[in-house]
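Appendix B. Chain record.
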Amino acid sequence: MSENVKNMILAAALSLVFIGLWDYFYAFPEIDKQRRAQTQQEKLAKVPQLGAPERVTAGQPPVKAAPKTRAEALALSPRIAIDTRSISGSIALKGGRIDDVSLKNYRETVDPSSPIITLLSPEDGPSPYYAELGYLTAETENAPVLPTTETLWTTDADGLTTAKPVTLTWDNGHGLVFKRVISVDDEYLFTVKDSVENKAGAPVTLFNYARVSRFGHPPSAGYAALHEGFVGVVGETGEEVTYDKIEKEDNAVKTYKGVGGWVGLTDKYWAAVVAPDQNLPMEARFASMGGAVKTYQADTVSDQKTIEPGKSAEATTYVFAGAKVVDVLDAYKANPGLKRFDLLIDWGWFYFITRPMFRLIDFLYKLLGNFGLAILAVTVIVKLAFLPLAN
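Structure tokens predicted for this chain:
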């Protein structure tokens, strides 16, 4: 065998080795990464999106229905009343949404006779803003019948209090029984325990989703140093995106992946948040949809669960709807363990300074009973702390 032939065979062998290594270490992982990303986008795309109902007239294309008054919108679904020390409102049995929450301890103005703050409102009324939980499936053939936004759940009680949870039930008529136990604490946290019992003859694979949806750009406090818009923690990383900035993202969508966390929408004083199991992987998304009147949605999707015949699966989700009170948020950070939940408040870039400074002012306010005196006391303390540097 000539030297040229040997060199040609060696070159071909080395080329095959190089191609094999390239495929193994780069091409195949990249293809798998793209496949997972496509699967993620397809799964997130199945999460319901906010939109006003359509009215169809014979011979004409669908048009958006005129918004109803809040009272009319609330009357479109049977409801479970909510009554606690901090909030009042109701849960819609149609769709199982938490879409009617008012804050008893806060008013629209400093006038004590002004209306209390209305935070969440139903979809068909003015300024829809609500939290919704549900199920998705990746199956395209023989897909299971799942509860939707139109599903009418049954309930074992007509009222939800801190001492009395409620249980919603829906049977899909094909072997799957869905149950949802909702409880609420004295402040602003709902605990939602979803379960699915598989009485059918075949396994079923489901994903849990949770979303906070809002129709229309809300009024802003207008402070450059104060964040209003999308907010969340995914894994251990805090995320903030304004309503205007989300429009600049590709397809007006921003996605995240991590283990545990929460997402929602925040105003200056109030927020609505959904938080899945803090120990499980989740995919989160901030999105803007619609034309002249935008709709905004923060949602999460869990990893899939396969439920074998005769078995059941459970998932716990937390829904926060209320005032951003520091002590309350810290309590939820400790129990049930919502990751970095204090970041629901915008502490700014200098968190390590602003947070301790707030604690000091708050302590002095409670001690002295006056914010003016508390600020003066902080000024004296800071002056004393830096006195050695000035001399």
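Further analysis of this model is presented in Appendix C.
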